[in-house]
Design goal:
The strands form three sheets. The chain has a seven-stranded mixed β-sheet, sandwiched between helices. Strands 1-2-7-5-6 form a five-stranded mixed β-sheet, with helices on one face. Helix 2 runs parallel beside helix 3 (103-120) and helix 5 packs across helix 8. The protein contains eight helices and 14 strands. The relative contact order is 0.18. The radius of gyration is 19 Å and the shape is globular. It has helices spanning 15-29, 69-82, 103-120, 175-185, 200-210, 224-236, 251-260, 279-290; strands at 41-45, 48-57, 63-64, 67-68, 87-98, 123-132, 140-150, 166-169, 214-218, 239-243, 274-277, 299-305, 311-315, 321-323. The longest helix is centred in the first third of the chain and has 18 residues, at 103-120. By secondary structure, the protein is an alpha+beta fold. This is Hydrogenase maturation protein, carbamoyl dehydratase HypE.
Length: 336
């Protein structure tokens, strides 16, 4: 394989993505090491702490069960801010549109985007639009940036997990990735829709309940729960122990993954979060999350241990122990 070529796997969120980021993109542009990377940058404006993030969306198809590329762009950006404990406030939107794209479908996407922004309590305040020749893009790509404000003094960071802490997942795994894949391939799966949703309202209640007990917040998008937990284990220098029988997976996702040989641990989510929390705060926080519409299926899925740094392992349903690695290659391209 030619090491000079960019592959689809470099956009998977997994091992190849991390190598590209750490060895070239981040190393060239900012110099931040892997331990310093989070879902958004924290900035100071006088006495005010701000979070700033940016993201690109290339999902195929651009309209799918449960959303569109427009609502997905809003949700993904506000969720990155929320994972820093920031209240999302403002977004930018840049559109790259292929010549020949339908104005009526563009209207559907933009209306969905506006409704998502209104629902999330954010304003789209600036943007840009470019049109490229037919065949030079695939219908529509969207890039969004977001700014939020931290209304507390908490330090929520991927390097903060400590031995004894508890891992909570806010709901079922893989709904978004499998819904998009099924729509792309024309597979009818009754009751399966993307979980794309804005998470700030849930996070706000979590901060109110657990406060300083919250160590880490992450939304497990590309690469799924497994890849996100590998990132956290590496940043914090700890071992994470998972319990397979505690992992929430819908029957639809489990069925499709079983047929196609996919592992739900590695499938993208767009409306779920992982929180690592101090042990004394875990049960009260779980109960509070389960009272929220976006956390009704929340479950404790594991613990943090003082083992080999960067290691994630899982006790399987039959009692064995499985090593969980970061996603290798590209399991489902263009999911977000």
């Amino acid at each position: 394989m030619d090491d000079d070529l960019i592959l689809l796997g470099h956009g998977s969120g997994g091992t190849l993505s991390h190598r590209l980021l750490d060895d070239l993109i981040v190393a060239t542009l900012s110099g931040h090491g892997p331990g310093e990377q989070n879902d958004a940058a924290l900035l100071a404006a006088g006495d005010t702490r701000l979070a700033f993030t940016t993201d690109g969306y290339v999902v195929d198809p651009p309209v799918f069960p449960g959303g569109t590329i427009g609502s997905l762009a809003v949700h993904g950006t506000v969720n990155d801010l929320a994972m820093m404990g920031a209240r999302p406030l403002w977004l930018s939107c840049a559109l790259i549109i292929e010549e020949g794209f339908s104005r009526s479908q563009l209207a559907v996407i933009l209306n969905d985007m506006r409704q998502a922004a209104d629902s999330a309590g954010v304003r789209i305040v600036t943007g840009d639009t470019k049109v490229v020749p037919r065949g030079k893009a695939d219908r529509i790509f969207i890039t969004t940036s977001g700014v939020g404000v931290l209304e507390h003094d908490l330090a929520i960071h991927g390097a903060n997990a400590r031995p004894g802490d508890v891992i909570i997942l806010s709901g079922s795994m893989g709904d978004h990735g499998i819904a998009v894949m099924a729509a792309r391939e024309g597979l009818p799966v009754e009751g399966l829709t993307s979980d794309s949703a804005p998470l700030w309202s849930l996070v706000e209640q979590m901060l109110e309940e657990a406060g300083e007990g919250i160590r880490v917040l992450r939304d497990p998008t590309r690469g799924g729960v497994a890849t996100t937990l590998k990132e956290i284990a590496g940043q914090s220098g700890v071992t994470l122990q998972l319990e397979e029988d505690q992992l929430p997976v819908s029957p639809q996702v489990r069925g499709v993954c079983g047929i196609l040989g996919l592992d739900p641990l590695y499938v993208a989510n767009e409306g779920k979060l992982l929180v690592i929390v101090a042990p004394e705060s875990a049960e009260p926080l779980l109960a509070r999350m389960q009272q929220h519409p976006l956390g009704q299926q929340a479950a404790i899925i594991g613990t943090v241990e003082a083992g080999e740094p960067g290691r994630v392992r899982m006790r399987t349903t039959v009692g064995g122990m499985r090593v969980v690695e970061m996603l290798a290659g590209e399991q489902l391209p263009r999911i977000c």
